[in-house]
Amino acid sequence: MKHIMVTGGSRGLGLGIVIHLLNQGYKVSTCSRNKTTAVDDLVNNNEHVKWFQCEVGNAEQTATFVKSACEWAEVPLWGLINNAGIAKEGVLATFPNVESDALLQVNLNGALYFAREVLRVFLRQNTAGRIINISSIIGSRGYTGLAAYSASKAGLDGLTRALARENGRRNITVNSIAPGYLDTEMSSTLSDKKRDQIIRRTPMHRLGTVADITPAISFLLSDEAAFITGQTLTIDGGITN
Amino acid sequence: MSNLADIILNETRQIIENKAEVCPEITVESEFLVDLPMDSLDLATLIVTLELTTGIDPFRDGFKTFHSIAELIALYEGAAV
Ligand SMILES: NC(=O)c1ccc[n+]([C@@H]2O[C@H](COP(=O)([O-])OP(=O)(O)OC[C@H]3O[C@@H](n4cnc5c(N)ncnc54)[C@H](OP(=O)(O)O)[C@@H]3O)[C@@H](O)[C@H]2O)c1
């Protein structure tokens, strides 16, 4: 059995990833700031999953979580899914600096701190491993009102490419998955008008679902994907075509 | 030789041998990336292992340059006091 760590697994895409990986036979540790009933139900009914409270973006809490999760799992760590993220909207000219600092701290520094801790575990274990960063099509395309978010995701893709080069010789692969617009809490603030516009412009004529993303995660975690690294895989129903 | 020096020499040897490499003679003058069959990730492995075994992290407050085993020993001995 292999251990996978998923950040932000209490709801939305993260929760979907946790459930998918459990069904695939992985042992899964996850974290978020708040516990949800969905996580409670999962943990109470499955001994192969554990939730920890951890603030992504806080280096000390990250180190503590990674250590505790590895002790709990008792099997080697195989992968990290850097999923936790926040989005806030507003044109940059009036976007408070404290808000962009906070967003970059979670989406970019948070992922970097996690990658650092997990790479240290891989080195100690002397094993191969997988890191998957959940990016967004906004990272390469941009979007009005999402400058800080866009910068954070573009940064994440840069992190993916650099870490892929740095760690390839240890058979550690690092990739990004860039979803299009997903039907989760994060996108619930989209106005009906914007939502309709996105659906009209998407060749598949709908928003993405968590189930559209999870198969790509298990593929990138698999042995079959051992030669794929440094890539950003776009899953967006064709909207960025 | 100090206990820390012993630990550093032993861990270095271990990492080289784990790569199925014949370990050359290691002296405190040996430079990690020049005289020993080690790359930057081996060096990272050494630092991570040393932090675990000694509880000391001389790099907590930022980069510190070292090339040789003696220089690394000095960093750990400095951080231990
Ligand atoms: N939804 C979309 O349309 C879409 C599209 C492309 C990419 N993405 C990306 O997909 C990822 C997941 O998005 P989602 O739609 O599932 O979002 P979501 O429904 O808002 O869920 C976000 C998850 O991250 C956790 N989280 C947020 N900030 C955290 C922090 N500082 N520390 C620890 N956990 C934190 C949340 O739990 P707590 O709040 O309790 O901490 C929650 O579990 C994000 O990286 C997002 O950028 C989403």
Automatic annotation (TrEMBL), chain A:
Domain Ketoreductase residue range list: 2-180
Alphabetized GO MF terms: oxidoreductase activity, acting on the CH-OH group of donors, NAD or NADP as acceptor
GO biological process: one example: fatty acid elongation
Record key words, sorted: Oxidoreductase
Keyword Oxidoreductase: yes
Family that this chain belongs to: Belongs to the short-chain dehydrogenases/reductases (SDR) family.
Protein name: SDR family oxidoreductase
Automatic annotation (TrEMBL), chain B:
Coiled-coil ranges (or none): none
Lineage top rank: taxon: Bacteria
Residue intervals of the Carrier domain: 1-80
InterPro entries, A to Z: ACP-like_sf, PP-bd_ACP
Descriptive protein name: Phosphopantetheine-binding protein
Natural source organism: Shewanella algicola
